[in-house]
Design a protein that fits this description.
There is one protein chain. This protein has 130 residues and is an alpha/beta fold. Helix content is 22%, strand content 42%. It contains 3 helices and 8 strands; from the N terminus they run E-H-E-E-E-H-E-H-E-E-E. The strands form 2 sheets. The chain has a 4-stranded mixed beta sheet with strand order 1-4-3-2. Strands 5-8-7-6 form a 4-stranded mixed beta sheet, with helices on one face. The model has no long low-confidence stretch (mean pLDDT 96).
């Protein structure tokens, strides 16, 4: 048996602002942006450069309950873990583009890590494993 996680839904307020952040600021690739007329929504998939399996589904919030989860899908803990092959390259590039780091770089037993916020406040680990 072989399984993998294909998509993780990330609740966003606005498709275009989210695409701008993930593609324009973080350098992700826009995999798909298709309008789904029957549901009046878009199917928007993005992925980090070099990713082959996992994707983020940028899902526009519908209604008050979903909107209340924007930026805090995990109750304030780190939500997503972005692995990199060059921590300092990506850390510097993100800082230069205005990404806010809430925990500065730290050498841990498992690798180099820092925590940043996305445009809505979700927490991410930028991580280069040893």
């Amino acid at each position: 048996m072989q399984q993998s996680i294909g998509y993780v839904a990330l609740v966003v307020r606005d498709y275009d602002r989210a695409i701008d952040f993930y593609v324009g600021t973080l350098g992700f690739t826009l995999i798909e942006d298709t309008y789904v007329e029957a549901q009046n929504k878009r199917w928007v998939l993005v992925a980090p450069p070099g990713a082959t399996e996992s994707r983020l589904l940028l899902a526009r919030a519908v209604g008050e309950e979903q909107s209340s989860r924007i930026g805090n899908q995990t109750g304030g803990r780190v939500f997503l873990f972005l692995h990199t092959d060059d921590f300092w390259r990506d850390y510097k590039a993100y800082k230069d583009k205005g990404v806010v780091f809430v925990r500065e770089p730290k050498e841990e037993q498992y690798g180099t890590v820092a925590v940043f916020k996305d445009l809505y406040g979700n927490l991410w680990d930028l991580l280069q494993l040893k």
